[in-house]
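Changelog entry

Holo records now carry the ligand SMILES as an explicit input line rather than a separate metadata file. Below, a converted record for 2-acetamido-2-deoxy-beta-D-glucopyranose, shown in the new format.
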Amino acid sequence: MDASISDHVALLLPSDVYGDSKKTRSFWRWWNQLSRFQRSLIYMFVIAVLFTILYFLPGNSENVVVDVEKPEANTIKKDVLSNIRNDPRDVENDFNEIENENQVLEEPGDVQIDDINNSKHVLARPNIGVQFPEPLGERQEAVVEAFKHAWKGYKRFAWGHDHLKPISETYHDWFGLGLTLVDSLDTMYLMGLKKEFLEAKDWVENHLHFDKNRDVNLFEVTIRVLGGLLSIFHLSGDKMFLNKALDLGDRLLPCFETPSGIPYSDINLFSSKAHAPKWSPDSSTSEVTTIQLEFKDLSRSTGIPKYEEAVSKVAHHVHTLEKKDGLVPIFINANSGQFRMHSTITLGARGDSYYEYLLKQWIQTGKTVDYLKDDYIEGISGVQKHLAERTVPNSYLFIGELLVGGKDFKPKMDHLTCYLPGTLVLGVHHGMPDSHMKLAEELLATCYQTYVQQPTFLAPEITYFNIHGENSNDMYVKTNDAHNLLRPEFIESLWYMYQITKNTTYQEWGWNIFQAFEKYTKVVNGYTSIGNVRNTANVRPKDLMESFFLSETLKYLYLLFSNNPKLLDIDKYVVNSEAHPLPIYSS
Ligand SMILES: *[C@@H]1O[C@H](CO)[C@@H](O)[C@H](O)[C@H]1NC(C)=O
Ligand SMILES: *[C@@H]1O[C@H](CO)[C@@H](O)[C@H](O)[C@H]1NC(C)=O
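Structure line, unchanged by the conversion:
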């Protein structure tokens, strides 16, 4: 069709119309012999041809769409993109600033955008406290390459799904919310991966829908999806992300409609039916206390108070419950609002981030809510008193668990617990007692040992410790606990520790572990969890790349290897439990 039209044009215009005078005369003779109907047909044809040419002319804004397959299409069409987006401080502009200025972005001050659509409260702070240094150091380059490798596999085999299965070359859906994609947005933004970011943004805008007739876990969706959307809204200033977050927040809110206000753990996003987990009448303590940063930020960002009210009520209720020297049991009932008697006390699974979010909520709200700080300090004292123990023979300090409501001590530590040194040192930075620093340093060294002592240089999910001198090993691993899910907690702690002490040893430790990930978890189409950290000959790949590998592990490694302390400023952002930075407010 295109070709035949242009053939006609070529025949008619150059030689016949603009030929010599003889030809011109014969043209007019021929023209006058035509009937009116024939002339009209020719007029219409010429007009149609002209329109067609205009339409296909490059640079015509109505015809250009952002082409995900061709990166150059995204870079050259700034004018076009700003027509499509109506927000002047859009992502494209930010990325152009990255390209042009190549240095510290000046702080634009709080930008009051009129509304989400029309209400008066949206607060976006694009790029405040975020700096994009160039050129990247060699180690940062290596982490960016790792991210790109992971992303390539995800894009090819799992695009828009929750998780990549890199070995079977397919995907796994847990909630069906594109978890890996949403979790990766701010990582790509910080790494300056513009092309990848714009593709992902396009998917969120056009394909991320929450009207799913499917049960999801309130906590997981809050820290990953709500946190991810709010974080990238603040970093980029793009309101589309806030609108998505608002829709999700509204769908999650019915979880809180319980007799006590303590939320149920699960909810159907379509029917809004909330309920306790299938396997238990209770919610997990850490889950109901690790949603506050995100819902508070949703309220602050939109000016709609109900989200913050719901989660503050939960936090305050938990504050009023009786604890063991500040330590909490891991289960709580949404109907009675009481802890389950005799449940375990741990800083691992189901307990961990209760303590983390006490400190972080206090920081997020400008250190104005005293009970959060008090409960945090009491909790850490409880840890020092009841849970911190030392190994034989090398006297490594670790955090164990209390069973049966605090009666039996179990010398077992989840890798999850290795988030604690980071939280402790963040607290010290904000004025917490010096004894917390000592605890942080010692615990960090033990966590490092859980890596060093494995032949793969990768830590297992759970480590047991020798406290009675049964043999000469400080720590051991049970067969069922020998897996490594590419978890971030230790790297997270290294980043905080390096931020605050500037001791480059922590960068070295992170680099050693990154090498181990490269060696034992990298596969052709991404990275995979492994089943056995104790056997270099067969690590038993598990064929799953969790979203937190891209959201957290690689982000923290990238931040750890940066020598620019303001790359992500911990005095302006508080980072949620899934490594999504959210702004610190003054109250
Ligand atoms: C704002 O507009 C978007 C799209 O135009 C819509 O999806 C969203 O629900 C609106 N938000 C509010 C709060 O009205
Ligand atoms: C840096 O940290 C390591 C590990 O904690 C420690 O052994 C070393 O003494 C520290 N270096 C300095 C200069 O503080």
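Spot-checked after migration. The chain has 21 helices and 20 strands. The longest strand covers residues 462-465.
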